[in-house]
Amino acid sequence: AQSVTQLGSHVSVSEGALVLLRCNYSSSVPPYLFWYVQYPNQGLQLLLKYTSAATLVKGINGFEAEFKKSETSFHLTKPSAHMSDAAEYFCAVSDRRASKIIFGSGTRLSIRP
Amino acid sequence: DTGVSQDPRHKITKRGQNVTFRCDPISEHNRLYWYRQTLGQGPEFLTYFQNEAQLEKSRLLSDRFSAERPKGSFSTLEIQRTEQGDSAMYLCASSLGEVAGTNTEAFFGQGTRLTVV
User: Fold this and answer.
1) H helix intervals, A25-103
2) Which of B37, B72, B79 has its CA nearest to residue A103?
3) Nearest alpha carbon to residue A84 among A64, A110, A106
4) Rounded to an integer, what distance in angstroms lies between the CA atom of residue B117 and that of residue B112?
5) CA distance B16 to chain A (A)
6) In the prediction, which pLDDT does B61 show?
7) pLDDT at B103 over 80
8) Which of A90, A101, B56, B71 is deepest in the core (most CB within 10 A)?
9) At B59, is the secondary structure helix, strand, or coil?
10) By three-state DSSP, how is residue B3 classified?
11) Cβ-based neighbours of B71, under 8 Å, separated by 6 or more
């Protein structure tokens, strides 16, 4: 079975600082990996996805993530945090049939002024 | 396109009552998914349809839960004999084909928040 583990349920950074949200996956086959963001009272929005093309994936709002097979990781980064980045972030995995998405438990990102 | 629409947005019901939620996917999206999200957790997969066929159901989907997509367009999720543990946000998503295609993704609605009292 496929799964993802998000390390840290809450991350707080200062505005302008580096954002690093950690995600490790477990899969017996090469996975598809995703990061979604959920703002309060809004639906989930796709930030980026890895589908075995480039290992460094660039997404919306300045976010990017790097697929590292040796570490089974897919950490999300942004060089400089903005107040508007405060939200819940979910790492997710799908199988090769890309039939359904399995989500992690989420990391709440807070931005300090 | 107005995106994935879910109705109602909020539902309060008494334990033991039946409830039904509706999801209208993005037009022409052939896949439709239902998820459940409890506070502080990530969405949990419940079931998905390709057109009108229900292709997969999670073990989370007990016999009290049933989902339909009769004409391959909108879908309904019914919970019979609701329990307090059913209180959660129920999310619907749709996609055109597989979720990891080059130009495809799953789009989520804002959800229906169910409170069982």
Assistant:
1) none
2) B37
3) A110
4) 16
5) 28
6) 84
7) no
8) A101
9) coil
10) coil
11) B52
